[in-house]
Amino acid sequence: MENRWIYKERPLPEAVQSLSKAINVNPYLSTVLLQRGITNFAEARHFFRPQLAHLHNPFLLKDMDRAVARMKKAIDRQEKILVYGDYDVDGTTSVAMVFSYLRSFYPHCDFYIPDRHAEGYGVSEAGIRYAADNHIKLIIALDLGVKALEAVAHASVQGIDFIICDHHLPGTSIPEAVAVLDPKREDCSYPFKELSGCGLGFKLLQAFAKTYRQEQDVFEYLDLVAVSIASDIVPIDGENRVLAYFGIQKLNQNPRPGLKALKEIAAVRSDMDVASVVFTLGPRINAAGRVAHARAAVELLLAQSDEEANALAEKINLKNDARREFDLTITEEAISMIEGSELLRNANATVLFKDTWHKGVIGIVASRCIEKYYRPTIIMTESNDKITGSARSIRDFDLYEAISACSDLLEKFGGHKYAAGLTLDKKNLEAFRMRFDRVVGERLTDDMRKPAVEIDVVLPLDAITPKFNQLLKQMAPFGPGNQKPLFEARNVYVRNALSSFKDRHVRFLAGQENTDAAINVVGFDMAHWYERLAAGDHFRMAFTIEENNYNGITSIQLRLKDLKFD
Q1: Is the residue at 326 inside a domain?
Q2: What is the number of structural domains in the chain?
Q3: pLDDT in tens, the chain (566 residues)
């Protein structure tokens, strides 16, 4: 599938020149920084040198004073506190963090994670019943709860208060809780809106510690916050950048036993970054709730010794192996269904249903199908005599709006532009499939149908020096809102040492017309370019810059992202 290349807007030349002079960097780096909103020396210093002092005052969050006061009241009265969170990475890290902090000085606390399959997402009836049966007086809800109006009201009747820490968009009404901490509330003026659920839990602990204990104590939990930020795909700018920067430092230097054990079982040999968290730690933590119960993930993150953590990590890893097996099997079945039907092959969207597919992995399967067919995708299975589905979208296509156009055929749905979940009655399946495909066809543009490669700036290969690379590395952590810069080089050719390895990848020494450049390039899963590269044609190359460590020698290499032969 051919990618379309799009280019970020070029800043004004005078702005590039001014910033280059102010911070003593070349115009290519200044261009990248300006594209990210960094316009002067002070902003560059703030960006390149994050400090914990840059974190916002947690009391700027609406209701924070009420939340802290209710926590203190519960502790003074020796009331039982229940820490309640979602079953994904963001929820389980949130619960582990808040429960661990409270338990360090207050014994009357417990935690609860709803069962993905039996209870579903959110504050469940079973959860409220558990709280009532165990004489809980205060529930701290993390990464959920902002739409739990009925559940909070039901708990209140039983004498149970709620503090809600949720980063999702609220509905038209806010639950009648003691405090609802959500920067996306219309009446909340907090200056950063994109905290993860665990990030919001951290702000609650920070506010409590500032008032009643030692603020520095809560910084010990930043490794958990960093894992949540990476895994929940929230923007890594603003306050999240500071939290992720110091959290990843702790993750690399002194992680808690549970995360240390996961790193070891995932065979992580070098320093972690956001991408390695997403691909190694995140899936393993998620696997507990996908194929069994997410309580196991919290227990691992709460482990206080290496021995305990290693034993729990082994069990989690087995669940991840099972999750991977489900994922691969269902993906193969889904692709086979599409390939076996002309109607499905030529559809505007992928909508597939099989009643035996595992509910815990259908979202992953939807993403896998997009990798192959690149169109909005919904994968559905049967759950509690209903059809439940997980939907994923493609760049620039508003999936939530497309599903909303079919809402009369659904029992419930929720999500956002790029990911959603839905439930419908079996009798509406075919009508929904046809309607959704028609709606997608009406709204998809020709550009949306092609994957996009977004170029930051055109860069000559001889500008890639060790100094330039060192400055790029200081832009980390990379992720949404601060992606690793993607460059384009033109008039490139294979200078030497073209090879294909493992029948999947290519490697070569690149040269460029009118320069003396000679730099190693590696393209993973790009062996299909080998014959064209061997023909000697000049090409344009989209790439990122990285380091290769081999036999104790570190060198700069380029990671190939795409090629165009003009």
Answers
A1: no
A2: 4
A3: 789 999 999 999 999 999 999 999 999 999 999 999 999 999 999 999 999 999 999 999 999 999 999 999 999 999 999 999 999 999 999 999 999 999 999 999 999 999 987 887 789 999 999 999 999 999 999 999 998 999 999 999 999 999 999 998 888 999 999 999 999 999 999 999 999 999 999 999 999 999 999 999 999 999 999 999 999 889 999 999 999 999 999 999 999 999 999 999 999 988 999 999 999 999 999 998 888 889 999 999 999 999 999 999 999 999 999 999 999 999 999 999 999 999 999 999 999 999 999 988 999 999 999 999 999 999 999 988 899 999 999 999 999 999 999 999 999 888 788 888 899 999 999 999 999 999 999 999 999 999 999 999 999 999 999 999 999 999 999 999 999 999 999 999 999 999 998 889 999 999 999 888 899 999 999 999 999 999 999 999 999 999 988 888 889 999 999 999 97
Judge if 212 and 346 occupy the same domain.
no
Instruction: Give the number of other CB atoms < 10 A from CB of residue 418.
Output: 17
> Is 190 found in the same domain as 83?
yes
The CA distances from residue 137 to 33, 133, 161, 245, in Å, are: 49, 11, 6, 36
Domain that residue 35 falls in = 7-49
| Tokens read off for 158 | 């039983």
Whether residue 307 sits in one domain with residue 372:
no
**DSSP string of 374-427, one letter each residue:** -S-EEEEEEETTEEEEEEE--TT--HHHHHHTTGGG-SEEEE-SSEEEEEE-GG
Residue 535 DSSP SS3:
coil
Same domain (yes/no): 533, 475:
yes
Residues 195, 273: one domain?
yes
